[in-house]
Design a protein that fits this description.
- The radius of gyration is 28 Å and the shape is globular.
- Helix 2 packs across helix 16 (about 345-355) and helix 17 crosses helix 18.
- The longest helix has 24 residues, at about 35-60.
- The strands form four sheets. The chain has a five-stranded mixed β-sheet with strand order 6-5-7-8-9, sandwiched between helices. A five-stranded mixed beta barrel has the order 12-16-17-18-19.
- Among the domains are: about 5-35 and about 80-185 and about 225-235, no CATH class; about 430-560, no CATH class.
- It is of the alpha+beta class.
- This is Heterokaryon incompatibility domain-containing protein.
- Pfam families: HET (PF06985).
- Keywords: Membrane, Transmembrane, Transmembrane helix.
């Protein structure tokens, strides 16, 4: 049975006239043709998906039974599109060359939809003006339109399950995804200003306030807070935003939003009328919007568990939907057939999916303990990840060194191989290394960064004095430890990660020569033999030293220094800026030390004061490769003699940085089949 959608008459006489639309279900052959490009990508992902399922069966056989390969869903899921009624609507002869898809937020039962047709399943779920704006986005009158409320049978649970399982294909195959921000309004004067500024994006100073307020309204829209909207954005190939205006909707491209942000960012940071929470909200929404765009062009590659964690920060009332959204975004070709009882259980499922897919990040999580069944006295071994686990993605997300080194997993314990670092040496840097570090930080404090695209995190204008002081202090510690490890060590770090070195090189710009002069001046102050050592470095090694220091100090989004500084400042200033909950035993994570791990390799570690004396430092073999350098892979295990046989209690996880692989040697001993539980 076909449903007809009359196009409402708009209030503006200049709006185009459209023929009524009819909801049709395309033939199976037509569906395969429309979804061909996305289906091919899904087929390419099948081997990775099958490998993930095989590991999941080893880790959690009962859980693996709740996932099915998605091609079953694709073959059964119908594809319905809104098409103009002038078409021949016989099922076999209908021909739709392409379609656009809608991304929007439903506002509630009182929201006024087109022609006041009532609830979304009986008519348009968007306003009259937006219906016209949406239809104007079609290439021609032959192009179809996909809207979830109209194209999914909302009364049929099986229909919803099958189509939700195929929504990655639907959005990836759409020629364009049209985002409606119906809770944002643009005045006529603002519309004129946007059109004028868009020509060159060099607004007058007096217009910055207006443009900043426009951007804040855009990024405060409800659409930026919804998990399903994130799903639709991340799967789209081309995006356009439509905003209500007095006449016709205002159209903004993703480039327009990025340019609007770039010209108003500094103004927003300096606006005293905006509280820190408002500014943080703008940053989060902008990051939500641009992150998938950057991933599409290869600027970012993040771990699965961090992607899953992002979904949990957005609004979605149904836990199984969160699971489906996260899996769709991951590219894994499975859909979920089970039931989920709680948010923690959903996190548990996603953690196991990520780990089975080879993502080691979940092993380094240090946020809340996942009490899956919420039983007293039985904490899970597993911690969820927090914001500071958005780790060094330019190295590549943290990958399992060898999945077979994990023997078994349940909700309460994990059995795996450990590298025991008991014989390794922890030490603080020498006074000489500290003096070099203080000198370099002092020189950086006097530098003018206006002509460069980055600056040290501890110099960010958004930091309050307490944060800035803690950040600067830890920066000195990181630098001092780096100097203590030696310039040769810095060379080895960057030469072992050529992709990272290449990316950092691309970020440095014109600052390279200035930074090298600062480094030389810092070392020359001591008038030490190391100053002549710098002169003797060949150009390649000199570049690698420079890249390492730049990575630690300036890579505010990706660098190791940023990770440690986030960890330290979040604990030094537990006020409204602190958005990252931490464990009680992790409150003093402020000290950076050097660690000799043998075989000519050293590492930087960030640990709480006194933790070295409390437990045995260890590392899962699964985290011993360089890709895991930015997560909490240094585990301290309780050494109490009353532990059960082969059962060890985890008392803390900490950062340990070296890009070189960590192997068994005289100072690093492998312990097999260790059972790890969480401290109660």
């Amino acid at each position: 049975m076909q449903t007809h959608y009359p196009v409402p008459t708009g209030p503006n006489s200049e709006q185009k006239s459209f023929l009524p639309l009819t909801l049709i279900e395309v033939s199976h052959a037509q569906k395969l043709e429309l979804l061909e490009r996305s289906s091919a990508a899904s087929q390419e992902a099948l081997p990775r998906t099958q490998e993930m399922l095989a590991r999941l069966r080893e880790f959690q056989p009962s859980m693996a039974q709740m996932f099915q390969i998605k091609d079953i869903s694709i073959s059964q899921a119908p594809l319905r599109l809104l098409c103009e009624s002038s078409k021949q609507l016989q099922l076999d002869s209908t021909k739709v060359g392409s379609y656009i898809a809608l991304s929007y937020c439903w506002h509630g039962p009182d929201w006024i939809v087109a022609d006041c047709l009532g609830r979304p399943e009986t008519g348009w779920p968007i306003s009259t003006a937006m219906v016209h704006g949406l239809l104007n986005q079609r290439e021609s009158s032959d192009e179809g339109v996909w809207i979830d409320q109209c194209c999914i049978n909302q009364r049929d649970p099986l229909d919803k399950q099958l189509i939700i399982g195929s929504m990655d294909l639907i959005y990836r195959s759409a020629r364009k995804v049209v985002v409606l921000l119906e809770d944002v309004s643009i005045s006529e004067a603002e519309e004129v200003l946007l059109q004028e500024v868009r020509v060159q994006w060099k607004p007058q100073k007096e217009d910055l306030d207006v443009l900043a307020r426009i951007l804040i309204r855009i990024l405060s829209a409800r659409w930026f807070q919804r998990a399903w909207c994130s799903h639709e954005l991340q799967l789209s190939n081309d995006v356009v935003l439509l905003l209500p205006a007095e006449n016709n909707p205002v159209e903004l491209s993703t480039d327009d939003v990025e340019e609007l942000y770039s010209v108003t960012k500094n103004y927003i940071e300096r606006d005293e009328d905006l509280g820190p929470l408002m500014v943080d909200g703008v940053y989060r929404s902008y990051d939500f919007f641009t992150r998938p765009l950057e991933q599409k062009v290869g600027l970012r590659g993040r771990s699965l568990i961090c992607e899953f964690s992002d979904i949990f920060q957005l609004a979605c009332s149904i836990q199984s939907d969160i699971l489906g959204i996260a899996i769709n975004i991951s590219g894994l070709q499975v859909y979920f057939t089970g039931q989920i009882r709680s948010p923690n259980e959903c996190r548990w499922f996603l953690a196991m999916v990520a780990l089975s897919a080879g993502d080691a990040t979940v092993l380094g999580g240090a946020d809340e303990v996942l009490r899956v069944e919420d039983l007293p006295g039985t904490p899970s071994w597993l911690n969820w990840v927090n914001d500071s686990e958005n780790i060094m993605t330019r190295v590549g997300y943290s990958k399992l060194q060898d999945p077979t080194c994990i023997k078994s997993i349940d909700q309460y314990q994990i059995t795996l191989d450990l590298l025991d670092l008991t014989y390794s040496d922890f030490r603080v840097p020498s006074c000489k290394s500290f003096r070099w570090a203080h000198s370099l930080v002092g020189l950086l404090s006097k530098a003018d960064f206006n002509d460069f695209g980055d600056q040290p995190y501890w110099m960010s204008p958004g930091l309050d004095p307490i944060e800035a002081s803690a950040a600067r202090r830890l920066t000195v510690e990181i630098l001092a430890c780096s100097f203590e490890c030696g310039f040769d060590w810095m060379v080895k770090q960057m030469s072992s990660a050529p992709n990272l070195a290449e990316n950092v090189q691309g970020s440095m710009g014109d600052f390279e020569s200035t930074f090298w002069l600062m480094l030389e001046e810092s070392v020359l102050i001591e008038n030490s033999p190391e100053s002549s050592y710098l002169d003797q470095l060949d150009n390649n090694n000199k570049d690698l030293v420079l890249l390492y220091l730049y990575f630690v100090l300036f890579e505010s989004l990706f660098g190791y220094g940023r990770i440690l500084l986030l960890a330290a400042t979040a604990r030094a200033s537990p006020g409204e800026h602190n958005q990252v909950p931490v464990q009680e035993d992790d409150q003093n994570l402020t000290q950076c030390m050097c660690l000799d791990i043998g075989s000519g390799n050293k590492a930087l570690v960030a640990v709480s004061s006194g933790i070295v004396e409390q437990g045995v430092p260890s590392m899962p073999v699964a985290l011993s490769n360089g890709s895991c350098a930015g997560i909490r892979r240094l585990w301290f295990i309780d050494s109490s003699p009353d532990d059960e046989d082969n059962v060890k209690i985890l008392i803390g996880k900490y950062y340990m940085f070296t890009l070189m692989p960590i192997e068994e040697n005289a100072k690093v001993i492998k312990r097999r089949d260790q059972i790890i539980r969480q401290r109660m």
